[in-house]
Amino acid sequence: MSTPATLTLLSRPGCHLCDAAREVLAGILPEFSSVTFTEKSILDDAELHDRYVEEIPVVLINDRVHNIYRVDPVRLRTALKEVTE
Questions:
Q1: pTM for this one?
Q2: Pairing mode, if any, of strands 58-61 and 35-41?
């Protein structure tokens, strides 16, 4: 049985790196049925905006920063396997 995990993408509208990150996540998430995905715009949260305005996209796994800017699918897949097994 897989352990539940959360994956969060912090993004903002019009961000081409965010679009690329979304594509990588869409390709990987179907492999992990126990992972819940959420996307949050930093424009909707002043604290997130102040913290990450220069660093998006940000991928969080269980509310911890996994990576910033570009998503490496191999590294993300490995990390998700580690937290869900």
A1: 0.95
A2: unpaired
